[in-house]
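Here is an idea for our session: we take a single protein and study its fold together. Start from the sequence, derive the backbone structure tokens from it, and show both lines together. Once you have written the record down, we can walk along the chain together:
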Amino acid sequence: MFPKPRRHWPPSLGLLSHLRIRYAQETLPKCTCIFQAQLQLQSQSNPRPFRRRPALATSLPRFFSTTPLLLKKGQRDEPKRTVEKATARSEAADNDPYDFSALEAGIDRALERLNDELSKLKPGGRFNPDMLEALRVSLVKGSRVTVKLADVAQVMPRGGRTVVVLVGEADHVKPITSAILASPYSLNPVPAPQSPLELHIPVPPATQESRQQTVAAASKAGESANHAVRQARGAQQKLLRAMELARKVRPDDLKKAKDRMEKVVEKGNEEVKKRVEGARRALERG
């Protein structure tokens, strides 16, 4: 019997390493077979449908959008601050009993209207063509709609004793003639023989009666201005009453505000009286 030959191991591998490699070569195929068999039994006992995972889109649509410009903090808040300041100012004006801007504006409008009416009056009772332009004319018989004579005709003084009215349309000649005859100026228009659209109005000389009428017109203009001042005072008094009911201001402030309001109104009435008296003296001297 021959002796069993001894196996020589490579010098690079030790005996323990060689045994591990050989064990793995003999054991792994068996474990693989067992694992595959277990998977097959499990699939037969609880079958699941095969689901394919959705493929990822390689080219998705891209949507472009616009974004607001990046502003600084102060620039972004500027519109909001403007609105807040305006609201605060309006609330402060509503709650301020010493704010007489609306009252003063109403008095100023009354004085401007008074100056306009007084400027149309001529000294000595002489006729002013501007008063003729302000006449109201009803173009349609029976209608309440009226227009100014200056809108449908042109008034021109000719010499010192005649006024010429040039009418734009032939249908307006009769309504304009009727309006001039019905005016308080004692005028008598006469159609021109050469031109049917031209009216000649002889101006009557100034008399004592015409002077008195002119002075009375100045007094009437002053009464209208005083009425406008009273209306402005009534509007301001309503504002103060609303503050009093809402209890937005103290009673002492309301009392002081009413006293100041009366002083503003009194000053406006004095200005109206001063202008009317000056106009009356000028008209009487003429």
Remarks:
- The mean pLDDT is 77.
- Residues 142 and 175 are 11 Å apart (CA to CA).
